[in-house]
Write a structure and sequence with these properties.
Blueprint (H helix, E strand, L loop, with lengths): L1 H39 L1 H20 L4 H13 L1 H13 L4 H17 L10 H14 L7 E6 L2 H13 L4 E6 L6 H15 L3 E7 H4 L5 H9 L3 E5 L18 E4 L3 E5 L16 E3 L2 E6 L2 H15 L7 H4 L10 E7 L7 H12 L3 E5 L3 E2 L2 H12 L3 E7 L5 H9 L1 H6 L3 E5 L2 E3 L3 E4 L3 E5 L3 E2 H6 L2 E7 L3 H13 L2 E3 L10 H13 L4
Parallel strand pairs: 2-3, 3-4, 7-14, 10-12, 11-17, 12-13
Antiparallel strand pairs: 1-8, 2-5, 5-6, 6-8, 9-18, 10-15, 13-19, 15-16, 16-18
Helix pairs in contact: 1-2, 1-4, 2-3, 2-4, 3-4, 5-11, 6-13, 7-8, 13-14
């Protein structure tokens, strides 16, 4: 079994390398053609220069984050032909209009099928936050939902296995990474058995996220075993902007009654069964009750993008629950196709409205100017702002970029803690003991702008106390590095950090 898995992984990595080489060859060939044409005629050279200037002006006026504009503007201004060619190939060509249209249509159909009442909290600031998610994301607010918090993913796995065993109608699972290792084998055994008894079982995973773990034969095997398995956005050797948009979500829904989400994927390291980077810190939550409808809807949205057939949404969404009200729960998603940075805006609203404290956990800290300024301003007005990042990195280059943000934040009054036992992969925040967000969105550009994500906003729920306690417990085993970043680094280090941060939005 181990030998077969190793072969699969090797084949999967080889496929990724071949795709990468094919894309580079396409880019190289197109650049060569354009350069040759440019040398051939002064008119073509003049035309490309004018087009480059127009593109730069268009970029400057574009309603998007400035961090994405600057690298392209610099590249086009410095190397007009190459910069223009790369921009046209990666930013304007290959955007999936079908996917955008299909996602919008499916979302509208699903939201019409969700049964919910209009709920407005007493807190004016929180009410504004929730109205934003309702109006601009069609994410309803629920009260009849119980929430369980898992400070370690191992606890979430145990409860998820128990819930899967109780499935009677359907199981929906969607993850960025699936590894056919020890943890997933336990899940797989239940899924196969349940499928054989007539339970509808669907599993979707991201191709690029899982490419170092499983190959496409893995999906075919699951389908043969009765599990409807789909691979999201398969990596193809064709230039396509949509290839950069990955399904980073983590969702498990059982019978529309129980749902799980959090930072963990279905691979051994997330459950501390393997330790490539020391102890793996990951968190999650379990929802039971009305809010599970939104988790089901989130799964069906992307599933229907990969599956071109009609769905009876009401079959999965109209399920009665009798859970007593325990605060307000608002699951929400974030899509790179709708030009609305939902997750970032939620974080900004929480930070801007913080009165006493706001704490974050994130594996990567590569933030926009807006987020950096909001965090710094909160600290300056007396809010206790703390951020937990990994003590042991999983990607050294990304870790270097993460650390490059420490200095500016620290000098504004933000406290930085590194998780010394190992790698902290949790994505969550808590504010003033009354509001929290937990899910899959990191504090980095890829999560906030390039990936499909899902999170849950919690208000006045008893479980927020558990999240706060976990933060305080985690601080006690972290290394506070605030003092070490009080003063500017060396000139060489600052230059290197500037270069890294310039291209961070593209990483």
């Amino acid at each position: 079994m181990a030998r077969r898995q190793k072969k699969r992984t090797g084949n999967s990595i080889l496929r990724a390398c071949l795709v990468g080489i094919s894309l580079l060859l396409q880019i190289g060939w197109l650049l060569l053609v354009i350069l040759e044409l440019n040398h051939y005629s002064t008119y073509i050279s003049l035309l490309s220069g004018i087009l480059a200037a127009l593109i730069v002006l268009g970029l400057y006026s574009k309603n998007t984050n400035s961090a994405f504009k600057l690298p392209w503007i610099m590249l086009i201004m410095a190397l007009p032909v190459m910069g223009l060619s790369l921009y046209l190939m990666t930013q304007l060509l290959g955007t999936s209009r079908y996917t955008k249209k299909k996602l919008k249509e499916v979302r509208e159909e699903i939201q019409a099928a969700i049964a919910t009442d209009s709920i407005v909290p007493d807190d004016i600031c929180v009410a504004g936050q929730m109205r934003y998610l309702q109006k601009h994301g069609n994410h309803p607010v629920f009260s009849g939902t119980s929430v369980t918090y898992y400070p370690q993913a191992t606890q979430a796995l145990e409860d998820m296995l128990e819930a899967l065993e109780k499935a009677e109608n359907f199981i929906f699972m969607e993850y960025f990474i699936v590894d056919n290792g020890e943890a997933f084998q336990k899940i797989r055994e239940i899924l196969v058995r349940k499928a054989q008894t007539g339970v509808e079982v669907r599993l979707m995973y991201d191709d690029f996220g899982s490419i170092g773990y499983v190959n496409l034969e893995f999906a075919r095997e699951l389908n043969r075993q009765g599990i409807q398995c789909r691979v999201f956005n398969p990596a193809m050797p064709i230039l396509n902007l949509f290839m950069n948009h990955r399904d980073h979500r983590k969702i498990a829904v059982i019978d529309g009654k129980v749902a799980f989400t959090g930072g963990y994927n279905l691979a051994d390291e997330y459950f501390d069964l393997a330790r490539p980077y020391g102890h793996w810190k990951d968190t999650g939550i379990r929802l039971e009750g009305d809010a599970v409808q939104s988790m089901t809807a989130a799964f069906l949205e992307l599933w229907c993008v990969t599956e071109r057939k009609e769905e009876d949404f009401e079959r999965y969404l109209t399920i009665a629950h009798n859970i007593p009200a325990q605060g307000l729960v608002q699951p929400y998603t974030d899509s790179p196709l709708d030009q609305e940075p939902t997750a970032e805006n939620v974080y900004l609203n929480i930070i801007n409205q913080a009165r006493d404290y706001v704490y974050f956990m994130t594996p990567y800290l590569i933030i926009t100017d807006e987020l950096g300024r909001a965090l710094g301003l909160a600290a300056k007005r007396g809010v206790d702002v703390r951020i937990i990042t990994p003590g042991i990195p999983d990607k050294k280059a990304v870790y270097a970029v993460t650390r490059s943000y420490y200095g500016g934040l620290v000098r504004s009054g933000v406290r930085i803690f590194e998780y010394t036992p190992g790698f902290c992969h949790a994505k969550q925040c808590v504010c003033d003991g009354v509001i929290a967000s937990i899910g899959t969105s990191n504090l980095d550009y890829r999560s906030l702008y390039h990936h499909f994500e899902n999170n849950v906003l919690l208000y006045d729920c008893p479980v927020i106390g558990d999240i706060e306690k976990d933060f305080l417990d985690t601080f006690s085993i972290c290394r506070e590095v605030t003092q070490a970043y009080q003063h500017p680094r060396s000139v060489v280090m600052r230059i290197w950090q500037c270069i890294l941060r310039l291209f961070a939005p593209m990483m």
